[in-house]
Design a protein that fits this description.
By secondary structure, the protein is an alpha+beta fold. It has a single domain (about 5-320), classed as Bira Bifunctional Protein, Domain 2 (BirA Bifunctional Protein, domain 2, 2-Layer Sandwich), CATH 3.30.930. The protein is built from nine helices and eleven strands. Strands 1-5-6-11-10-9-8-7 form an eight-stranded mixed beta sheet, sandwiched between helices. A three-stranded antiparallel beta sheet has the order 2-4-3, with no helix packed on it. The relative contact order is 0.19.
Length: about 325
């Protein structure tokens, strides 16, 4: 589909934003706006923040919103401008918007239900029928059904190298610190699986799909579930897809400050290993996580432009952009 006239795009944005705000306000959530330039962001292995006059442009509003929850805020949401360096393409942009929200005394199933209802609300607002239902698939069983690779979820780098095809190249290269080798291997596995089997499988599914129960190495900000007999421990993370396009990522949020620091340190070690610029440890967030502490909660982020693209029948983010170039 070609790019729509600017006036049509403005109307579509307005309709979608109204639907988002109506949904969350109807659910009793308070709208907030957190700062765009920050002294610290969540440390991610392959997400690069944009640096701005001694600070960092937000890659996500996650840490500021969690700090609000630590200080007693009720359930909250926002539509936040975020920035990620060198992300360009049909489904990527260096600057975009995330719908992010947090529910106290909730778990990942509650915000997963929000994802479903929110997407339908925006589809209907733009004149589209709601999705034809949702299904869920656990990460490791789905990996096995699409590749015949059976894993527990707690394998180290050497065990993953033995278990997966050699062409997937999960072996960490020289220079990756010992503390980050498992994270590198699991990240490489996810990338290779996506290219080889997961993306085609997702594209073939009708309606929406949640992938749930991620291996712990791939969920640095999520709590772990209880151990199950004969199975490994899964992280309480999900990702939501429509038409093969990733729309949302959510967690039952980790509340242990010491464990969160350890996970950030692992990610920072991986960044050093592949030569990424160092990022500051998010000490203010970790301090708030320790005291007064994060209440039991779950949260999710959903890409606004991707949702608008799907709801309006566009083929690329550029087709619904409000940029005039």
């Amino acid at each position: 589909m070609s790019r729509r006239p600017l006036s049509d795009r403005v109307q579509a944005w307005d309709q979608a934003l109204q639907a988002v705000r109506a949904y969350f306000r109807g659910q009793g959530l308070c709208e907030v706006l957190t700062p765009v330039r920050l002294p610290e962001v969540a440390i991610e292995p392959y997400i690069e923040p944009v640096r701005a006059q001694g600070g960092l442009l937000a890659t996500s509003p996650e840490l500021p919103m969690k700090r609000l929850l630590c200080e007693g805020a009720a359930d909250i949401f926002q539509v936040a401008p975020v920035f990620r360096a060198a992300e360009r393409g049909r489904l990527h942009s260096e600057g975009f918007h995330l719908i992010e929200w947090y529910r106290r005394d909730s778990d990942e199933r509650d915000v997963r239900a929000d994802v479903e209802r929110l997407i339908d609300a925006v589809f209907v607002a733009l004149g589209r029928a709601p999705l034809e239902g949702w299904s869920s698939a656990a990460f490791l069983p789905l990996l096995e059904s699409t590749t015949s690779i059976r894993l527990r979820g707690d394998e180290n780098a050497a065990e993953l190298e033995e278990a997966v095809p050699s062409q997937w190249r999960v072996q960490p290269p020289e220079g990756i610190p010992a503390s980050a080798r498992d994270l590198y291997a699991w990240s490489a596995l996810l990338t290779s699986w996506s290219d080889a089997a997961l993306d085609p499988w997702l594209e073939a599914q009708a309606g929406g799909v949640h992938i749930v129960d991620y291996p712990p190495a791939l969920a640095a900000l999520a709590q772990l579930g209880a151990a199950r007999a004969g199975e490994g421990v899964a992280a309480r993370r999900f990702e939501s897809y429509v038409g093969g396009i990733e729309l949302s990522n959510g967690y039952h949020e980790l509340r242990d400050a010491a464990e969160q620091r350890r996970r950030f340190e692992t990610v920072a070690a991986l960044r050093r290993g592949h030569g990424a610029p160092p990022l500051p440890m998010p000490e203010s967030f970790l301090s708030a996580l320790d005291r007064p502490g994060l209440p039991a909660c779950a949260g999710a982020a959903l890409g606004f432009e991707r949702l608008l693209m799907l709801a309006s029948g566009a083929g690329a983010l550029a087709d619904i952009s409000l940029g005039m170039d």
